[in-house]
């Protein structure tokens, strides 16, 4: 029996194709397909992704492993989808007994984004009105910084204030950074980057080209993805264990 | 150290209030508050609940425990919110390697409900066009039946076709039934019921009065519930373990 399992595992291993790393165009095409053809809702996808990010953070940094007395986490949210995911992530972290604080410099006019913001406010999650430029203040106050600023759709060659200033600060802090989907400021398709240096990356749906040489802890969250899309884009996703919504690559 | 933990656990146990079982009015009030004041979206809540139901099913009936060769599950979906939750549950069960089949006798005209339906259709989950009245056919074909028909808002004194007929069938089958939130046909507030007899009940948010004397396996799924609502309605929810979205009561 054991021998049979071995040989079938070997046979399978031979046919396993390597994980695909997506271009910017492929990311957009998959999302369009999910929304238009599969009729997923943005609200639904953002909830799925944000929850998965929070669970990834509990795996990478369990409460018991945090250096500071309080389980503080700073979640920096951008104005678009990545920021909404950060808001959902903060809400779930609160349910997991972490103490998130949100820095959300530019509120979106999109009603969905506003709804996610209200959910956090009503959960008594504090919002910072500005980010200290004094790096030591961040190092002292937070166990972790979650970078949910700029998603794969952002133009990294043209990052404006307040995000360019925040990136300068994030390059200097000693607090570990967890990036959501694409580290803010990185080119989605470039493997060598001189931007921020996250300790953890949580790729959503499938990793992007820029993640191919990422040497930190790398999670993939996107189990909801229909099999037909996985096949069409030849994603060769790994098998998620049990009912887990994410896997460490 | 061990002694200290013991005494603090005892002190805590003294102050633990019993779990609240909700009336129909309280169920509606909590949902209104979630949607209106906390700005949760229906799509978001249904996704959270449906995913939790699928995970509960994997806990109660792991793939390895199923009696039949194929991991078949029949998911019966009603026309309203309970049915939408069933559709999401079926989709997640598919991702967990079960083989769900959906029976959805009355399609809703609500666009959200239709979106959840399309998501299942595009995942190649088969839809039955009618439910066999021959009970043996159901017993032979399915390991489980998921009852996602009538939610707490349904008027159990006035159940119409096709649901009344389906309930007659469900009372006769030997296949174990898993009910979502409230077993279809049960009065939300009555503890003694002569309707269907589910083996598993998955209460959403908080259990309803009818669940107080339920003797089967009982799960509670609703970890997202803001602490202020938990306090306001004195729900006295148990502590969810780790990052689990549900707990067995």
UniProtKB/TrEMBL annotation, chains A, B:
InterPro entries, per the entry: YjeF_N_dom (IPR004443), YjeF_N_dom_sf (IPR036652), YJEFN_prot_NAXE-like (IPR032976)
Molecular function, one GO term: NAD(P)HX epimerase activity
GO cellular component, one term: mitochondrion
Superkingdom of the source species: Eukaryota
Record domain YjeF N-terminal: where: 27-237
A Pfam family recorded for this sequence: YjeF_N
PROSITE patterns named among the record's database cross-references: YJEF_N
Xref: PANTHER family: NAD(P)H-HYDRATE EPIMERASE, YJEF N-TERMINAL DOMAIN-CONTAINING PROTEIN 3
Protein name: ApoA-I-binding protein 2
Organism encoding this protein: Collichthys lucidus (Big head croaker)
């Amino acid at each position: 029996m054991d021998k049979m399992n071995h040989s079938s595992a070997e046979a399978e291993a031979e046919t396993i194709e390597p994980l695909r790393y997506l271009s910017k165009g492929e990311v957009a095409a998959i999302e369009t397909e999910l929304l238009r053809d599969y009729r997923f809702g943005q609200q639904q996808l953002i909830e799925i992704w944000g929850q998965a990010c929070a669970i990834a953070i509990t795996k990478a940094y369990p409460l018991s492993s945090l250096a500071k007395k309080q389980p503080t986490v700073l979640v920096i949210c951008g104005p678009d989808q990545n920021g909404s995911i950060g808001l959902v992530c903060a809400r779930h972290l609160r349910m997991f007994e972490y103490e998130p604080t949100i820095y959300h410099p530019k509120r979106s006019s999109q009603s969905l984004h506003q709804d996610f913001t209200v959910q956090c406010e009503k959960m008594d999650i504090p919002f910072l009105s500005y980010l200290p430029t004094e790096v030591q203040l961040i190092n002292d106050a937070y166990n972790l910084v979650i970078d949910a600023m700029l998603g794969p759709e952002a133009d990294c060659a043209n990052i404006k204030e307040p995000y360019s200033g925040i990136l300068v600060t994030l390059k200097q802090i000693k607090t570990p950074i967890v990036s959501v989907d694409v580290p803010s400021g990185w080119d989605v398709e470039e493997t060598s980057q001189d931007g921020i240096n996250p300790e953890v990356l949580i790729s959503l749906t499938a990793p992007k080209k820029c993640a191919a040489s990422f040497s930190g802890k790398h999670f993939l969250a996107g189990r909801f993805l229909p099999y037909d899309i996985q096949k069409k884009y030849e994603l060769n996703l790994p098998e998620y264990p049990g009912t887990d919504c994410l896997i460490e690559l």
